[in-house]
Amino acid sequence: MAFVIEQIKLRQIEMPLVHFFQTSFGRTYSRKIVLVEALAGGISGWGEVTAGENPFYNEEWTDSSWLILRDFVAPRVLGHEFAAASEVGDRSVHIRGHFMARGGLEAACWDLEAKQKGIPLYKAIGGGAHKQIACGVSIGIQDDVDQLLGKIDTEMNAGYRRIKMKIAPGWDVEVIRAVRKRFPEILLTADANSAYRLSDWELLAALDEFNLMMIEQPLAHDEIIDHAELQAKLKTPICLDECIRSAHQAEQAIRMQAGRIINIKLGRVGGFAEAIKVHDVAMKHNIPVWCGGMLESGIGRAANIALSTLPNFVLPGDVSASKRYWKKDVITTPVEVSPDGLITVSEGPGFGFDVDHAFLDSITVRQETISKP
User: pTM for the whole thing?
Assistant: First the structure.
């Protein structure tokens, strides 16, 4: 069913986190998030730009995504007739990088198309293998080990099926040792966010004794070759995150045996169309995938839920409950996790939740409507 985007609305919101979140990049207390609304034929589709406040995870940040969308992506998309949402990304493929900005608009168009057809977003992307999503949780670097242990205990009691803890030089081997002593049986992952170098391989090899599910992105974002050399030295599987921005890079990394697991983040690869391709490449090679998170609001979280219904998402992802991050979410019914660590996939049209427009207006710090001249 074809559609023509008539207007694109950009909106920046600011939301304080319930608890600070710290990685090797730094500590975050609140989120500045750009939301994208695409309008066609009286229907509104929503997407979220998952870029952070600073260009540390990748080259993007809140302000850059606003400019890229307003000045470069939107003019290429407005007024163009699309046979399907899968074509939207091609209109901005000539822009180098800036996948999160482009992916935010692309996701809005998938939501719009699903609403146009009156079907859930997960069906529009070809998902549905999982009607419930197994949930893990990501815990940032804490002020001390006791604080970390307390947070893990809280999340395990809440039903989460996998604990991911952030690590960095000085907060790694002995911290994980303390966690394993307290929680010997839990599914445990260490996420380094590119904090190490290949020369640190002996330190990373010391993590083999802790029966980790994976070490996520230990080396730099562009070091597939070094990851392959490191993986050969480790028993613990490496999970690639920042390295994988396309299906082609996933294919290269798998051929080089640079990792045994891939984390797919919707924004990092530029939207659903490319995320599906990455998923398919990994499944062809029997490489399991899971859905990573970027401290999204309910709009981005709902998109992650839909993505996680594809068949090769077989490991618990970072798709957790709204209340872990927000006192109040931007959707009227927050995302909830059952006591056994599952999210039930919504059967509602589009991304499956209603936007809380009154609350959204109250936390909006700027907005702009872009129409075709």
Answer: 0.95
